[in-house]
Amino acid sequence: xxxxxxxxxxxxxxxxxxxxxxxxxxxxxxxxxxxxxxxxxxxxxxxxxxxxxxxxxxxxxxxxxxxxxxxxxxxxxxxxxxxxxxxxxxxxxxxxxxxxxxxxxxxxxxxxxxxxxxxxxxxxxxxxxxxxxxxxxxxxxxxxxxxxxxxxxxxxxxxxxxxxxxxxxxxxxxxxxxxxxxxxxxxxxxxxxxxxxxxxxxxxxxxxxxxxxxxxxxxxxxxxxxxxxxxxxxxxxxxxxxxxxxxxx
Length: 249
Ligand SMILES: NC(=O)c1ccc[n+]([C@@H]2O[C@H](COP(=O)([O-])OP(=O)(O)OC[C@H]3O[C@@H](n4cnc5c(N)ncnc54)[C@H](OP(=O)(O)O)[C@@H]3O)[C@@H](O)[C@H]2O)c1
Description:
Elements: E1 13-16, H1 22-33, E2 37-42, H2 46-58, E3 63-67, H3 73-87, E4 92-95, H4 110-138, E5 141-146, H5 150-153, H6 159-179, E6 184-191, H7 204-208, H8 219-231, E7 239-242
Parallel strand pairs: 1-2, 1-4, 2-3, 4-5, 5-6, 6-7
Helix pairs in contact: 1-2, 1-8, 3-4, 4-6
Bound molecules: NADP nicotinamide-adenine-dinucleotide phosphate.
NADP nicotinamide-adenine-dinucleotide phosphate binds at residues 18, 20-24, 42-45, 69-71, 96-100, 119, 146, 148, 191-194, 197-200.
């Protein structure tokens, strides 16, 4: 394992949904470097998830790739069961997977809206609902939802995306106070305009011009902030922006 890396999460099991994507891959690698056994979830990009698993393995860590289409409610349960079979009960849930389709409000019908909400909001809720009882019983747990600056500003992807991400904030606020005394934290990270992801809603140069810092963020910067949140047992019920200054908290 990485020389000098802390092993704070040794013995813990983490599930990173969207682990095949830009941000999730970085987070999965960092969790493993801190000692956690990591389930790297994917939907369509199995090879990307397996590359993350191989990287973790080559560094002496433990990881598995697990597929699920999180638009399906039942898939959330099957995903957790698969992780439990392979690695054990989940201590750290990073519900990071997200669906993003650029569309105007006048183009989105009920089915498109429901699909977005199912993937981006209902799935994180169902995953949290499934893992929370065990976390509370063990009196330690971390839940981190990945939303977006779009939840705060409306954004440029579409109303279905912004609404689905904003819902995660309410979800976290509802859950956090109910499980805090059991050692479980529930937080949200709200990134904006991150390079090297499949999700950028436009030309990188044009997008960079919208950002006070003057450039896109990196998956590594988001993953570093996620790790800081996951490490901290006194930080809960928070929405943490990492957006180059686009939205003041
Ligand atoms: N990139 C940005 O600028 C930005 C800004 C704000 C918020 N975010 C949020 O950051 C999170 C991570 O995204 P990313 O930036 O790393 O983009 P990414 O590289 O496109 O990764 C998205 C991930 O979500 C997974 N996914 C998409 N639809 C899914 C579904 N229906 N069921 C299960 N998994 C699904 C993808 O799996 P497969 O690839 O295997 O299909 C992939 O692993 C997302 O929640 C996104 O909304 C990103």
